[in-house]
Amino acid sequence: MAAKVFMTDLRANFKDNLLTKITRLLESSGLAEGIRPQSLTAIKLHFGEEGNASFIRPILVRPVVDAIHKLEGKAFVTDTNTLYVGSRSDAVKHLKTAARHGFNLSVLDAPVLIADGLRGNSVQKVKVDLKHFQEVKIAAEIVNAEAMVVMSHFKGHELPGFGGALKNLGMGCAGREGKLAQHANISPKVARKHCVGCGQCLEWCPAGAISIDEKSSKAVIDNEPCIGCGECILICPKSAINVRWTETGPIFQEKMIEYAYGACAGKRERCFFINFVMQVSPACDCYNHNDLPVVADIGILAAKDPVALDQACADLVIAAPGMPGSALGEETAPGGDKFKILYPEIDWTLQLAYAEKIGLGARAYELVKV
């Protein structure tokens, strides 16, 4: 059975602006059926890396907060820390970045918190019993939330081909260890030219997997005892420890989807998804910049089914003419697979097919304009 995906275009007038349109999308998606009085409701989004300007604007989050409050739910706005070292790699830096980008109480009328704690290790294990993981490590406050609205900026992405609701769920709701497990299948590596042998990583490593080589006075990570928590990446004052981005594209996509499955566990019927197909940049908002959009703004879509939602958004982007002068180069004809043009080695359909296979949703959809 085809899932309903609700869509609004970006036309507006004095009677019907984008804020009222977002409210209407939420109503159409059945938000009232999933938000119970006093239920702690996570609004999961991406605050954007410092220097990036393509993330969802805070003022567009406010109608979601207002809709939850109208239903007597208790809304909080949240994201998780990044695996790489940047402006969102620990909760202190992350909250500063969020505030600089306008995500604060006065704009949102909801508190902002980091779901996986100060250093990305506040997680809970969720049993999934799937192909790659028996259990996944999801940010504690995502697990603790009784309902969730996932707001995603739909764009290209260098690993799954595009990033939408599924990527926001799978990667965005994982703690640091979970992110590392998706991206890599071996321990982090030490960049010897940057390591000064200070020993901070030794003191922090919970598995005792790091030592200082006597000859070089550089840190060394032993793959066997390493548990893949990734905390040494963050703790190194010289940024000398990095992820080995070793996982193959298809396996990465399957792992990401298994984490998405775990992020919804226990509240699947109380999860709602909104994709903003606006400023469709060719790469992730985790970069400290955003390139020219690959298509013109298309609209805002919402659904209870994240698989159908992402499929609909991908189809709309493909059907649209490409933006001249963008990363698409000369391949701007309507109907061209923009994601395949951007990332020819990536089969972006794998994430959707696997999500459907494990029961996270269905790719068939009915597009309903509201």
Report on this model:
The protein has about 375 residues and is of the alpha/beta class. The model has no long low-confidence stretch (mean pLDDT about 95). The chain has helices spanning about 20-30, 30-35, 60-70, 90-100, 105-110, 140-145, 165-170, 175-185, 200-205, 230-235, 250-265, 305-320, 340, 350-355, and strands at about 5-10, 40-45, 75-80, 110-115, 125, 135-140, 145-155, 155, 160-165, 190, 210, 220, 240, 270-275, 300-305, 365-370. A hairpin with a 7-residue loop joins strand 5 (about 125) and strand 6 (about 135-140).
What labels describe this entry?
370 residues; Alpha-Beta Plaits; 2 domains; globular; Rossmann fold; alpha/beta; 30% helix
Summarize the structure.
The protein has 14 helices and 16 strands. With about 375 residues, the protein is of the alpha/beta class.
Topology:
Layout lengths: L2 E6 L9 H12 L1 H4 L5 E5 L17 H9 L3 E6 L11 H10 L4 H4 L3 E3 L8 E5 L7 E5 H5 L2 E7 L1 E3 L3 E3 L1 H6 L5 H8 L5 E2 L9 H5 L5 E3 L6 E3 L9 H5 L5 E2 L6 H16 L6 E7 L21 E5 L2 H14 L18 H5 L6 H9 L7 E5 L1
Helix pairs in contact: 1-3, 8-11, 11-14
CATH superfamily of the largest domain: LarA, N-terminal domain
Main sheet, how many strands, which sense, barrel? 8 strands, mixed
The CATH architecture of the largest domain would be 3-Layer(aba) Sandwich
Cα-based radius of gyration, to the nearest Å: 20 Å
CATH top level of the largest domain is: Alpha Beta
Query: What's the end-to-end separation, in Å?
Result: 21 Å
